[in-house]
Write a structure and sequence with these properties.
globular; 8 helices
Length: 243
């Protein structure tokens, strides 16, 4: 039993309780929030065991806070399928989570505690937030928006079938830019502050950029794939960082 994931579990339920008292979550919201909290706790515990870690670093604590905020967005999104939810609450929590995304990396660098575990933790939180926002926006903008949130997970599944997709990728800042654009466009669409046609065009543009980013990496790995007799190097995902 590692203290970091346990603290995260307690923090998540505390946030859900406060959110429920403030705006209400209903059964659907509590079910989704609880499933997210328990799933995160189990996955984090397993990941820390695999990495040989016993405690969170300073940057991991920031990421854990973002993960708890994403759990609240998950609960509100699930509740939105059963009834109306306060959009300002969902948008406000999402904006804080997006802003904190620029904090954990800076903390890791300043404290010299950057690690492959921290980079993967950060990326998984970001990827799941984009998936949840896609689910929230899709009913109003169109089911095709789900492609934005699902693309990263489709890529992961593809690596199980095509080992060459697990090859080493070179660092590319454009991936981070594209990932940030996804969050900004999705939360703007969720806030419903733009005319519907403009929001749809923005979402389509975000999807096009994401497709280009993944496509460029796939082409790069395809051209450098190894013969079948040689195992492909495993990608750490810290090179991708969200995109």
């Amino acid at each position: 039993m590692r203290p970091g994931p346990v603290i995260g579990l307690l923090l998540q339920f505390a946030m859900l309780a406060l959110l429920s008292a403030a705006v209400g979550l209903g059964r659907a919201g509590w079910a989704a929030g609880t499933a997210y909290a328990l799933g995160s706790w189990m996955l984090l515990t397993r990941a820390m065991h695999t990495a040989g870690l016993v405690a969170f670093g300073p940057a991991d604590l920031v990421t854990q806070t973002r993960a708890a905020l994403v759990g609240c967005v998950t609960a509100l999104t699930a509740a939105s399928f059963a009834g109306d939810v306060p959009v300002p609450a969902l948008v406000g929590i999402t904006v804080v989570a997006l802003v904190l995304d620029a904090v954990d990396g800076r903390v890791a660098r300043r404290t010299a505690t950057a690690s492959a575990f921290g980079a993967r933790f950060d990326m998984e939180v970001d990827a799941f937030l984009i998936l949840v926002l896609s689910c929230y926006v899709a009913p109003s903008a169109g089911l095709w928006v789900l492609a934005i949130g699902a693309m990263r997970y489709v890529y992961v599944v593809a690596t199980w079938v095509l080992p060459w997709l697990r090859g080493q990728l070179f660092p590319r800042y454009w991936r981070k830019v594209v990932a940030a654009i996804q969050g900004i466009v999705l939360v703007t669409a969720a806030a419903d502050v733009l005319p519907r046609p403009v929001a749809v065009v923005a979402l389509a543009g975000a999807l096009a950029l994401l497709t280009e980013s993944f496509g460029r990496d796939v082409v790069y790995l395809w051209r450098r794939r190894l013969p079948a007799s040689h195992p492909a190097p495993v990608e750490t995902y810290s090179e991708r960082v969200r995109a």
